[in-house]
Amino acid sequence: MEFPMVLLRLAEWVLYQFLANSYYRAARKMKSYGFHFGYLSSKPPPQPSSFPSVVKYDFEGRESQTLVACDIHRVLLRSHSFFPYFMLVAFEGGSIFRAFLLLLSCPVLWILNHELRLKVMTFITFCGLRTNAMDSISRAVLPKFYLENLNLHAYEVLASAGSKVVFTSVPRVMVEGFLKEYLSVGAVVGTELHTVGCYFSGFLSGSGLLVKHRALKDYFGDTKPDIGIGSSTVHDHLFLSLCKGLELQSPSLFVTVDTSRTVMIALQQHKGKHLPDFSYMTMQEAYVVNNEESKSNSSSVMPREKYPKPLIFHDGRLAFLPTPSAALCMFMWFPFGIVLAIYRILLGILLPYGWALSLGVWSGLNLQIKGILPEKSEQKQGVLYVCTHRTLLDPVFLSTCLAKPLTAVTYSLSKVSELIAPIRTVRLTRDRTKDGETMQRLLREGDLVVCPEGTTCREPYLLRFSSLFAELADEIVPVAINTHVSMFYGTTASGLKCLDPIFFLMNPRPSCYIQVLGKLPRELTCAGGRSSCEVANFIQKQLAGALGFECTTLTRRDKYLMLAGNEGIVKQHKCPTNC
């Protein structure tokens, strides 16, 4: 009888402590900031900064210097909150239920302080998550969103230094891959997570949440870094004060101070005057990122052409940054999206082309087609349509817009996608001879659609074209196809491919742009004396020019090695004959 009473009293004490502390913190926050849902971003109150802005940084002669960055969010990233990136890991690496639980925790996160907030988000996101799943997300999903939110001014300062070290309080596994691969950071010191076997436990390691100024001292020891960048918070000021400084020994020395290299208030107030009577004074070279100015100034936005590395491949289903409000809208839309996707699929399967097109547009599909429609072939074989590859539905949209039956060939198509496809689909084997014979037979039966890239690409790039199609037909019609989604991507490299068309059609208003470029002149085909490689390269450049894309020599193998760690080929496992 005593044991249950002990448990009851212990639970009562824990509940009292939690509620009392939480209500106290909530009251303090409401008094200081008022009701503002954006406080989930953990943005501290604005502090008058004694450090100059990063826009005043002098870029000359930095190649041999060491730079330290105080965290990734609020400094290298324009966003204050790291919640969206936890949501990305929870949704892409865990499940929709884990992501929904993280969203439900927002009211609690609003009450908690910064340290507890990070611990709660870490536990919900990582508890039971496989370590290799996190490796895949950090490599294939997160870099796209980091690049889109990268602060241009902070990045330019970071890139100017020869040696770079980043200290962050968020889990190291969430940022290390991006910082080293895209920003060439030499070392990343962050919060470590506890693991059990190949799973995360959801708890922090024994060292706990990283204290950045202590980690800086431990990492550099007696030496000091040359430059520091951080935010305008008090904790970051403590971190930046540990950067290397220049000592001024003479108390009566007359100096003119460069404000871009000055961080001490006394120096800023006495610019061009006699220094106060100090035995010495130190000028730390440190800079702060003012995100309030960045929001109103578009110059801090990183344009695509200035990305440290081209973003060609990325994975994941979410096409937007899942802030709390955006994630809430997504979960509210999800059940309606499933019904809408089923409705759109049934339109393509059951109705004639004209009806399916009209009702599809009425449901929110945005289909645009322009160009020269090809004339009927005079030869005994059909027309070969050579398309760019954005989703599995590209041949379906082309067939619907042309109002004619087409046959599509593909290397990998799930049984579900094959079952619900409103057009004929034929699998290829990756054996060049057999695939050539199959495509020749299909061309004799009618018009054929082929996507010579061999896989989809989301970004404005075209992968290398296989030249096999050029050897099979003289009547070739290039077709430029591009798609746009606002909520879910309809492609995946590591997820369930059977859900690709469903996710695409779940978008509120997915769009597909189709431009038929006209039949290729005979003198530009193999029949006109061109090699198959020349024909393939010419069509790739022609399609890239029509869409405003860039040609690459990357292949399907390159994509899957980067995103999924394999070559994108499903191997058939055979039972061994000898056990």
What does this structure look like?
The chain has 579 residues and is α/β, with parallel strands linked by helices. The protein has two domains: 54-247 and 285-295, Rossmann fold (3-Layer(aba) Sandwich), CATH 3.40.50; 324-564, no CATH class. Helices cover 40% and strands 15% of the residues. The protein has 21 helices and 18 strands. Strands 10-17-16-11-14-12-13 form a seven-stranded mixed sheet, sandwiched between helices. Helix 2 runs antiparallel to helix 3 (96-104), helix 6 (131-140) runs parallel beside helix 9 (172-182) and helix 14 (324-350) packs antiparallel against helix 15. The longest helix is centred in the first third of the chain and has 32 residues, at 2-33. It is elongated and about 80 Å long. It starts with a helix and ends in a 16-residue tail after the last helix. 37% of the residues are buried. It is found in: Membrane. It is a multi-pass membrane protein. One of its GO terms (biological process) is cutin biosynthetic process. Pfam families: Acyltransferase (PF01553), HAD_RAM2_N (PF23270). InterPro entries: HAD_RAM2/GPAT1-8 (IPR056462), Plipid/glycerol_acylTrfase (IPR002123).
